[in-house]
Design brief:
Strand order of the largest sheet: 1-8-2-7-6-3-5-4
CATH topology of the largest domain: Rossmann fold
CATH architecture of the largest domain: 3-Layer(aba) Sandwich
Mean pLDDT: 80
Radius of gyration: 28 Å
Low-confidence stretches: 6-49, 492-509
CATH class of the largest domain: Alpha Beta
CATH superfamily of the largest domain: P-loop containing nucleotide triphosphate hydrolases
Distance between the termini: 66 Å
Shape: globular
Length: 590
């Protein structure tokens, strides 16, 4: 079993508690957890003394909840928290995303929650970096601990009504899940009484440090009793997280469900080089190939989420945008629409990379390169969860090929480099999918009525023509036609040659007209952002935009001459989103 027990004793006595006493003998060990979504071919019965099961050592109330959720086994990290060496200790829990860490955490907390008489006041604080993760952790703990009616789980996060939260906190919830800033506000206002806290959990500690919450976390640590237990939960443990752990823990044991940095074998990683101007087309074509699947698209900037979502919506896709600039109610609605299947595509910044647990995300598309290997791991880890298969596609600008290759090597993933699929290849792939579906149905017995109708259709007609027509009718209805994109092949770290592909792509016109825009890289202009703005504002396809050159304060670009007149008229009007951006015609080039 891939579990590492690493004794950590370095600590700061001013901030670090002594380890809590071991639970009373009659309390069932609370340190094991089942997989969150392992398929259940047969529902197991509750454990009996004579029949060992994966759930031995888990309190009966939690075991019943897990069985009701279809659990049939434990993940590695859930087994790890059940080990005798972990009982009553401060824990550092690390494991891959989607490996059941939250349920493992719930079982750890349950030791101090089983006795209603002793379970007074707030017993546990769980601190998370984002509102979405806080809400998700709250939901997981609520169903897991539902068999303990005296246990209440509440979430308090930034962006929500402070007065409403204070009302919910008056009865001292047993567990409070919170973002750092909002929790500290409630502690300082007296809305949260920490004197009975037995567990402090820092979930996704590395992310909270990246977001600048170190001072808030240290203030929270100082507010809780010294004899609490402290747990850090993270997919990775870089040096800065270890330093924080050493400040808030003593005599900690490191539970490692999977090897740190190990790739998730359930994810197929691929990358495609994208020539300038083809990013949007590459996204569209990837979505067309994933018709009917749930897809998460990552971009770098908040403004890009709305812009890309609007373009995809205009092309017929069901899309929602998610970013930190939305209100909490807007973010909740966007996530719920994605989770419930109202929309198939969610365009998000990295706010969704940590902790977002939406079932059956089949594909993750990373439009902008992640900042570091950990971000790549967390983004791609939104798919391939709990034993399901998933795919991650990274779109790489040609000039960034070497950087991307280094990043992927550091992330310890094996990536297949593939050229972007052409429109013909997409049609062929979808056709093969339709034929496979029809072949599968042909193995089933047809009704007498169906056979009679088939005979009527075939009468006097060429059978091949009838089948071809039916295959055409059975083909999926696409939101839009596939985009024409340049096919670029990875070339051992050298800049690939794309001149021939570009010439073929732009042969429909002999001339381009040059325009300028008062938007340069000092204000965040990139080729992909600029192209997206031009196509939306000028209502033209990306294939009609030629060379783009970006300077510090402005940029120039080319538009095919046969659409330049209409483009010029449309961009004369101020843009409703970016009213200060001005576009003017400069000259035409041959």
């Amino acid at each position: 079993m891939p579990v590492v027990l690493d004794e950590s004793t370095e600590a700061n006595p001013a901030l670090t508690p002594a380890p809590a006493e071991a639970p009373a003998p009659e309390a069932t060990p609370a340190n094991a957890t089942p997989t969150e979504a392992t398929p259940a071919n047969a529902t197991p019965t509750e454990a009996t003394p004579s029949e060992p099961t994966p759930f031995d050592g888990i309190p009966a109330a939690l075991r019943r909840a897990m069985l009701a959720h279809g659990f049939v086994d434990l993940t590695a990290v859930q087994r790890a928290v059940l080990q005798p060496e972990a009982r009553g200790r401060n824990l550092r829990i690390s494991s891959q995303t989607g490996s059941g860490k939250t349920v493992a955490l719930g079982i750890v907390l349950a030791d101090d929650l089983l006795d209603p008489a002793a379970c007074t006041g707030t017993r546990a604080l769980v601190v998370t970096p984002t509102r979405e993760l806080a809400t998700q952790v709250q939901g997981e703990l609520r169903w897991l601990l539902a068999g303990l009616p005296h246990v209440r789980v509440e979430a308090v996060t930034g962006g929500t009504d402070m007065i409403r939260e204070r009302h919910a906190l008056r009865r001292a919830p047993t567990i409070i899940v919170a973002t750092p800033g909002r929790l500290l506000d409630h502690v300082r206002r007296g809305s949260v009484d920490c004197k009975n806290v037995r567990h402090l959990v820092l979930d996704e500690a590395d992310r909270m440090l990246d977001m600048g919450f170190r001072e808030d976390l240290e203030a929270i640590v100082e507010a809780v009793p010294a004899d609490r237990r402290s747990h850090l939960v993270s997919a990775t443990f870089p040096a800065q997280v270890r330093r924080l752990a050493d400040k808030v823990q003593v005599d900690a044991v490191h539970l490692q469900g999977t090897e740190l940095g190990a790739a998730n074998d359930d994810i197929e990683h691929s990358a495609s080089l994208v020539d300038r101007g083809d990013t949007y087309g590459a996204i569209v074509n990837a979505l067309l190939l994933g018709q009917g699947e749930r897809v998460l698209v990552f971009v770098e900037r908040r403004a890009d989420t709305a812009e890309l979502a609007d373009r995809l919506t205009a092309d017929g896709f069901a899309v929602q945008a998610l970013s930190g600039e939305l209100s909490q109610s807007q973010r909740t609605r966007a996530l719920e629409a994605f989770r419930s299947g109202v929309v198939d595509v969610l365009v998000s910044t990295d706010v969704a990379a940590r902790g977002l647990d939406v079932p059956d995300i089949s594909l993750v598309i990373q439009v902008d390169l992640p900042k570091d290997p950990n971000d790549y791991t967390h983004r791609s880890g939104r798919t391939g969860r709990a034993g399901r298969k998933g795919r991650s596609l990274l779109l790489v600008p040609i000039r960034a090929q070497r950087h991307a290759a280094s990043l992927l090597a550091a992330a310890k993933v094996e990536v297949v480099w593939r050229p972007l699929p052409t429109a013909d290849e997409i049609h062929e792939a979808l056709g093969e999918r339709t034929r496979a579906l029809v072949n599968a149905r042909l193995g089933e017995a047809a009704s007498t009525r169906g056979l009679a109708q088939a005979a009527e259709l075939l009468e006097g007609r060429d059978p091949a023509q009838v089948v071809a027509t039916l295959l055409q009718l059975a083909a999926p209805k696409l939101p839009c036609a596939p985009k024409q994109v340049r096919s670029v092949t990875a070339d051992a770290g050298r800049r690939p040659a794309v001149a021939a592909a570009r010439a073929k792509h732009t042969r429909h016109t002999g001339r381009f007209i040059r325009f300028s825009i008062n938007w340069g890289h000092r204000k965040g202009a990139t080729p992909s952002r600029l192209l997206s703005h031009l196509c939306r504002r000028g209502e033209i396809d990306s294939g009609l935009v030629g060379a783009i050159e970006i300077g510090p304060g402005s940029a120039t670009f080319e538009v095919a001459d046969h659409v330049a007149g209409g483009f010029e008229q449309r961009v004369r009007e101020p843009d409703r989103r970016e009213p200060l951006l001005r576009i003017s015609r400069q000259e035409s080039t041959g």
